[in-house]
What does this fold into?
Amino acid sequence: MNVPNHSQASRIRFDIQKLQNGQGDTLQHWQGNSYKGIPVTIYVDGEKVGHGIQLKHWDTTIAVITMVGPIYFDARYISSTTRGFQGRIINALRTAFGENYASVVRIAEELALPTGEREVLDWRAEGTSVR
It folds into this structure.
């Protein structure tokens, strides 16, 4: 499914809503220009624990979001177009989880830093994999 840039925040919100409603197994792959939303299954120590959506720019993962929030966010990856994609992701996260949700606040703080000081935020527990 083709999702143009201007519709990506609403598509990401839609995917998060499906995750929150326990419908992660119904997520569908989408893409637009160089961006993709890929449904994934989350495993901890080899055991399936849920579903998520992996958001990518070309082949670089920018975020992985589950029903309980983001478990990975690459604020370090920079291109002129990725800054906009990161903004669309944070807007969707704010709508889905609220402005004060801890990981949403942390991502917003990271994105507010100068480009060279940004980090990759990874909340995945040891033994967590995404497939």
In short: The chain has one domain: 5-130. The first helix runs from residue 8 to 20. Residues 5-130 form one domain.
